[in-house]
């Protein structure tokens, strides 16, 4: 086996038997990076130390071995020298002189200005930068205008190249148009060497405001013969007072407002004051336009002058407002607002008559006339819901519930007139169906209830909820509803396409109608009297004959109502609906367990002996409880 001398001992060259030399102090590494033909590349490691480099020797030998031609060795063409762009064009920059025009909208002395810039094109990476020379006391932030970057040429993603640059052309950079006028000698030589024909140089544009400041125009003003001091002494404390109105009703939420226009004769100034009324809802700012000279006609070039920012000078005004421009019955437009003068004081009338020869100013009546009364017409009733509820949508954006008759509700509270009726129908199955009409005197509403009958084929229960029933043939806009006077024995009541015939009523109905005989027809009262005075037939007597169980149940119900009238406050409807939900077959009875659950939910004291006695009387042999008889105790 081959052995290797390691640390002075001959050991076999096996894993675990090789050791590093502890006497070695230098660990050199060979260079792996270099340049070849101007490009940075990696170089295979060459052993710089005495150690053996662990490389693939077969790959190294095959790489270093060059094939020899069979007949003659070929001559290799020497590679061309390659120089990178950052080396060839290092510190070589093309320089151009240019300018761009900038608008000046907030000045009356200059409309635009010329700003000179220097454009640099770096050949090293085709980037550009724009610099504006700093001008002392210019008031404009100058210096670096666009930092060095590749400037976009179009929306396709192209960038400006030195081939696109020339003298006498326009460059659009980021929305600004730059005009190139000249370049330096190096730029000129470079572009010509690349075969670009340069345009002749141009003169740099001059800034008009800068030239104006170099040679300011001399203006000579001839002194006026008008003596302002004499005018002040003559018309001091003499003011013309006009009463005007501003009509802004053409605008949304506009109105008419009163103003006082004061014209000071001492210096021809105008002041507009606002007339405030008590509780007018406006801030107490008396002055609308402060005392100043108001321009009447501006110079043609000064129409777009920003008067809200800068003051108007004499050069911008062609004519000012004077005392002749104000007269009663004449509109005056001041600062974009038109005032109508309808009156003035006595001094103003005398001054205009003596100074200008104007006739006596009449007083114009501008008082507000009451608007015509518009009768509100409701749209036709569509038949859905109550007409009072539908009408509230026309009175307000957010409808409110209709106002109720509180006196009627208090007088008719808990007063219900009950009638028994049968359904008039050609269908044989509808014969024998009985209904109970309940007329609520507090709201004039009617509800219909059908007592459930076992094995009748009809569910029974609530047939119509509380609502007002309109009489057939009445108009939709002003319908007439059924009242207690329409429910007499044998009356035909039509309810939404169903026809009912009244056959019976409670005795309370007759007592109530007799106590209010002046409000209801005598024929209705007479029909009820005849009905109750007529002797009953044997069938009716047998049907209405009380049984011992019924007498006992009525006695228990009466005791329950007297005992728990102040303790239990239950509504018949919710309890009955709860039992109907459990009674899916509409048999009128439910299981004892379900019955106790409903009583527990409505806090009915099932443990009381009267309640237990009532449950016993309502129970059947099959273990079910008739909830119809049970609910009578709480109705």
TrEMBL record:
Question: Domain EF-hand, which positions?
Answer: 570-605
The record's annotation in InterPro entries points to: DM10_dom (IPR006602), EF-hand-dom_pair (IPR011992), EF_hand_dom (IPR002048), EFHC1/EFHC2/EFHB (IPR040193)
Which cellular component, as a GO term, is one annotated location? spindle pole
* UniProt domain DM10: residue ranges: 90-195, 236-356, 413-517
What is the name of the protein in this document?
Answer: EF-hand domain containing 1
Q: What is its main location?
A: cytoplasm
Q: Which UniProt keywords apply?
A: Cell projection, Cilium, Cytoplasm, Cytoskeleton, Flagellum, Repeat
**Listed GO MF terms:** alpha-tubulin binding; calcium ion binding
Task: Kindly list the places in or outside the cell where this protein is found, as annotated in its UniProt entry.
Answer: Cytoplasm, Cytoskeleton, Flagellum axoneme
For this protein, the record's PROSITE patterns field holds: DM10, EF_HAND_2
Query: What Gene3D superfamilies does the record point to?
Result: 2.30.29.170, EF-hand
Q: Which organism is it from?
A: Sarcophilus harrisii
Which taxonomic lineage does the organism of this UniProt entry have?
Eukaryota, Metazoa, Chordata, Craniata, Vertebrata
A Pfam family the protein falls into: DM10_dom
Q: Name the SUPFAM superfamilies on file.
A: EF-hand
Gene Ontology biological process terms, A to Z: cerebral cortex cell migration; cilium-dependent cell motility; mitotic cytokinesis; mitotic spindle organization; regulation of cell division
């Amino acid at each position: 086996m081959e052995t290797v001398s390691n640390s002075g001992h001959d050991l076999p060259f096996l894993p675990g038997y090789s050791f590093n030399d502890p006497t070695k102090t230098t660990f050199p590494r060979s260079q792996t990076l270099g340049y070849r033909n101007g490009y940075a590349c990696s170089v295979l490691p060459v052993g710089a130390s005495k150690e053996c480099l662990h490389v693939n020797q077969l790959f190294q030998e095959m790489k270093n071995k060059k094939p020899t031609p069979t007949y003659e060795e070929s001559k290799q063409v020497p590679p061309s020298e390659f120089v990178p762009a950052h080396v060839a064009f290092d510190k070589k920059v093309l320089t151009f002189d240019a300018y761009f025009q900038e608008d000046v909208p907030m000045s009356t002395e200059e409309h635009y200005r010329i700003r000179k810039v220097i454009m640099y094109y770096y050949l090293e990476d085709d980037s550009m930068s724009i610099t504006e020379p700093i001008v002392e006391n210019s008031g404009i932030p100058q210096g670096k205008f666009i930092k060095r970057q590749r400037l976009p040429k179009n929306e396709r993603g192209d960038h400006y190249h030195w081939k696109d640059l020339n003298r006498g052309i326009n460059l659009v950079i980021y929305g600004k148009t730059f005009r190139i006028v000249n370049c330096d000698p190096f730029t000129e030589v470079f572009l010509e060497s690349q075969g670009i024909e340069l345009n002749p140089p141009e003169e740099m544009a001059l800034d008009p405001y800068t030239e104006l400041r170099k040679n300011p125009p001399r203006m000579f003003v001839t002194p006026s013969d008008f003596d302002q001091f004499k005018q002040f002494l003559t018309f001091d404390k003499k003011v013309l007072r006009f009463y005007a109105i501003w009509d802004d009703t053409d605008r949304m939420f506009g109105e008419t407002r009163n103003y006082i226009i004061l014209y000071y004769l001492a210096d021809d100034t105008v002041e507009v004051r606002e007339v405030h009324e008590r509780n007018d809802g406006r801030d107490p700012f008396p002055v609308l336009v402060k005392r100043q000279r108001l321009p009447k006609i501006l110079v043609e070039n000064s129409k777009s002058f920003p008067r809200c920012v800068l003051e108007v000078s004499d050069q911008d005004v062609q004519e000012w407002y004077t005392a002749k421009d104000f007269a009663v019955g004449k509109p005056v437009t001041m600062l974009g607002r038109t005032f109508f003068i309808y009156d003035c004081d006595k001094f103003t009338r005398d001054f205009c008559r003596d100074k200008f020869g104007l006739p006596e100013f009449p007083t114009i009546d501008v008082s507000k006339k009451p608007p015509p009364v518009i009768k509100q017409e409701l749209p036709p009733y569509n038949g859905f819901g109550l007409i009072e509820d539908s009408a509230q949508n026309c009175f307000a954006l957010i409808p409110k519930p209709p106002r109720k008759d509180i006196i009627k509700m208090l007088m008719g509270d808990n007063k219900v007139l009950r009638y028994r009726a049968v359904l008039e129908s050609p269908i044989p199955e509808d014969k024998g169906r009985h209904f109970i009409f309940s007329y609520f005197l507090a709201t004039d509403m009617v509800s219909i209830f059908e007592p459930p009958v076992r094995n009748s084929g009809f569910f029974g229960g609530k047939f119509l909820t509380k609502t007002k029933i309109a009489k057939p043939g009445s108009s939709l806009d002003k319908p007439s509803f059924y009242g207690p006077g329409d429910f007499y024995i044998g009356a035909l009541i039509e309810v939404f396409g169903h026809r009912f015939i009244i056959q019976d009523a409670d005795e309370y109905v007759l007592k109530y109608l007799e106590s209010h005989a002046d409000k209801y027809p005598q024929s209705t009262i007479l029909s009820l009297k005849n009905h109750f005075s007529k002797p009953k037939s044997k069938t009716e007597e047998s049907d209405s004959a009380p049984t011992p169980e019924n007498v006992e149940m009525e006695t228990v119900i009466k005791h329950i109502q007297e005992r728990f009238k102040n303790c239990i406050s239950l509504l018949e409807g919710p309890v009955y609906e709860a039992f109907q939900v459990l009674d899916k077959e509409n048999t009128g009875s439910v299981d004892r367990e379900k019955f106790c659950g409903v009583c527990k939910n409505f806090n009915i004291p099932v443990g009381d002996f009267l309640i237990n006695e009532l449950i016993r009387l309502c129970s059947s042999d099959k273990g079910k409880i008739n909830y119809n008889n049970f609910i009578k105790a709480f109705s």
